[in-house]
Amino acid sequence: MGRWEPNARGRLAQAALTLYAEQGFEQTTAAEIARSAGLTERTFFRHFADKREVLFYGSDSVLDLLVQAVAGAPPAAGPLDAVSAALQAVGAVIQETPEPARLRYAVVSANQELRERELAKLAEFAAAMAAALRDRGVPELAASLAAETGTAVYRVTFARWIAGQAQPDLPELLRESMAELREVFTDRLLGSPAS
Amino acid sequence: MGRWEPNARGRLAQAALTLYAEQGFEQTTAAEIARSAGLTERTFFRHFADKREVLFYGSDSVLDLLVQAVAGAPPAAGPLDAVSAALQAVGAVIQETPEPARLRYAVVSANQELRERELAKLAEFAAAMAAALRDRGVPELAASLAAETGTAVYRVTFARWIAGQAQPDLPELLRESMAELREVFTDRLLGSPAS
């Protein structure tokens, strides 16, 4: 046991996700979350500015991970390879404990304001990866295109992972998606109506 | 002159954009917009539900244009070709009267809530194009990847067009970006640090 509330932040985050998923984001109060975690509302607000922040407080470390992975990709890696490696690094972290990510996705998807905020976060991730690519010497346009494309691939793949349409390993699904997009760019016949 | 206010909607939209750009979205009231257009506040609210809607009311017709262009692409066109054609069709419309689009971009960029709403609209466009691709017989994953990638390319290119870093023809810039991304997918050397 720590000095005060051991792992209060983690307990609050888990309680919040569970309650949001069970009864809806809008219907859940900070006081309920705190009570469910065995803590006080005051403690909740010591750790999170508001109910929404519980869903986004991890995004700073995701952004750091993405930027470090882009920067740390082998020198010979192309921009999309570096971006793919970064997204797979995040995918591997999520895959370790998938349940919170699945709950979070359900909560965010059910609320227009949260969906819009999520898209803004992804746009920040893309901008940060583009900057990291430029630091590697990638020209401006190629850097932006690779970062935004990678982020688009991530969105599509994450939804696919959630839907469980294929095996559940997120990094592997990301590799598959990137390979598929590469084919879309090269295989003209894909667009022909099936007949 | 029509029965009541001729072209009230267009006049209100133009007055709103001008005022938002001059004095900020938040600082502008519906009454000011109406006055500036020579109309009443009641007329404003007959045409738009709120101040924000003026900035998004055109998006339904953009969506229709995108879907029709994807559906109408030649049968042999690949999914990214069909998406490119659709985005270029929208780009051509914007290029005809670029000033409102530039003003609108400045207003939306300056406001977090509007930026998030804009990203949500782009996500709707991507989903609609993916559905139109599936109707062409494109498999689910390829359809989503092509639509989301195309939308990502559009975002990057539109910002480039606004920044005026190249010649100002939006459809041509879109073609360039798509060609550049195709190279990013094939040219491994682009990522090497310039040395």
Give a verbal description of the structure:
The structure is a homodimer of 195-residue chains. Chain A has 195 residues and is mainly α. The first copy, chain A, has two domains: 8-51, Arc Repressor Mutant, subunit A (Orthogonal Bundle); 58-186, Orthogonal Bundle (Tetracycline Repressor, domain 2). Chain A is built from ten helices and no strands. In chain A, helix 5 runs parallel beside helix 8 and helix 6 (79-96) runs antiparallel to helix 10 (170-186). Chain A is elongated and about 55 Å long.
Salient structural properties:
homodimer; about 200 residues; mainly alpha; Arc Repressor Mutant, subunit A; Tetracycline Repressor, domain 2; 2 domains; 10 helices; about 0% strand; elongated; disordered C terminus
Short summary:
The structure is a homodimer of 195-residue chains. Chain A is an all-alpha fold and 195 residues long.
